[in-house]
Amino acid sequence: MEGARPRTGISRRWKTSWASRKSVKTFIITAFFAVVLSLFLLSGKQRNVGQSSGCDFPAIFNFGDSNSDTGGKSAAFNRILFPNGNTFFQKPAGRYCDGKVMIDFIAEKLGLPYLSAYLDSIDANFRHGANFATGGSTIQPLDVRMFKRGFSPISLDIQLSQFEQFKERVNELYKEGGNSNIKNKLPRPEDFSQALYTFDIVQNDLDSAFKSMTEKQVVESLPGIINLLAQAVQRLHQQGARAFWIHNTGPIGCSPFQVLDYPPQTENVDQNGCIMSQNEVAQEFNRQLKEGVIQLRMQLPDAVLTYVDIYSARYSLISEAKKYGFANPLSYCCGHYPDILCWGKKIMNGLGTSCSNSSAYISWDGIHYSHAANMWVANKVLDGLLSDPPTPITEACRMPLNL
């Protein structure tokens, strides 16, 4: 009996060791399947980014110029009349375009209605956000020189003040228990922190600068412009904004009117007929903007900031216009340079016409992109392949994974 005791001790130690090994083995198997399940769910989510489920943004608040104006300038000043809007809306829709602008495609991608302009008092609905952009707006506060050239007085700082007042009054209304019919046309207080905040603005800053400065001076002015945009993001962050979608600027030197305004020397023309030096200024702005966004990420660690490379998408389209079924990228559909502008009084009085097939043109009116071009660019950028981080807009509320 006593001779058996050592075997019992060894047996116990073996059982203990086996149990320990079994626990480790069980833990490893469980962990393995947890990782597999996580990867499966992640891949499933990645497969579904083209759908509007993602972040489920309840609203969009947009700040910008005519590239994303959905009726602000038209409501505040002279109405933009036909043939603007003739392709998609079949009527004037407050847009400098024959159809939809980029913010419209963003709203569609997120499963939201088109944004009403904040300044539009007729049949506006702000339940899912508001558009503070107006044609001619700049990042910099307007000065006399810029005002005389026709730029909008509703610069980015004014748009931010409008947003702050809008948010404050919405919150007051909810606290007072306001009429439910009115509430149905306004965002809920909690929507402001869950919304997507979009920026599409700077083209007019550059255009104005080219008219009054040397290109070297324009480049020297860029840090100040970017600093103002960074301050705007910080100001919105203080108001509770957390998800930002920030467009860089497009190839301004490829605008048909820009080429006509500043006929380039042979050595300053690229293969597409664009003004190389102006595009280089735009690219320098974009480089500094991207650096500014990186700095903002460090300063605002609880915010998600997506930098969107609109320039690459638009320049790619211009460079391969024929391949994608478009006409000469420096031609345009509506108006006639320099005296008949597509949004001006002469065309409103029937003195100007538009082409019969606007879908064949990249430029709608010599400055703004056509519905067809905007759709092409939207399809390129909204999936995130040209963004930093490479995040689809449907996932733009999520912190990128550092794998």
Descriptive labels:
disordered N terminus; 14 helices; alpha/beta; 44% helix; 6-stranded mixed β-sheet; single chain; 403 residues
In short:
This protein is α/β, with parallel strands linked by helices. The protein has helices spanning 5-47, 72-76, 102-109, 144-148, 156-175, 180-183, 191-194, 203-212, 215-238, 256-261, 276-299, 310-319, 345-348, 371-381, and strands at residues 60-64, 129-131, 196-200, 243-247, 304-308, 387-388.
Protein described:
With 403 residues, the protein is of the alpha/beta class. It is 44% helix and 6% strand. The protein is built from 14 helices and six strands. The chain has helices at residues 5-47, 72-76, 102-109, 144-148, 156-175, 180-183, 191-194, 203-212, 215-238, 256-261, 276-299, 310-319, 345-348, 371-381, and strands spanning 60-64, 129-131, 196-200, 243-247, 304-308, 387-388. It has a six-stranded mixed beta sheet, covered by helices on one side. Helix 8 (203-212) packs antiparallel against helix 9, helix 9 packs parallel to helix 11 (276-299) and helix 12 packs across helix 14 (371-381). The protein is globular and about 65 Å long. It starts with a helix and ends in a 15-residue tail after the last strand.
| Strand adjacency order, main sheet | 2-1-3-4-5-6
Mean pLDDT: 87
Order of helices and strands: HEHHEHHHHEHHEHHEHHHE
Q: Ends: how far apart?
A: 60 Å
Give me the secondary-structure category. Answer: alpha/beta
Largest sheet: 6 strands, mixed
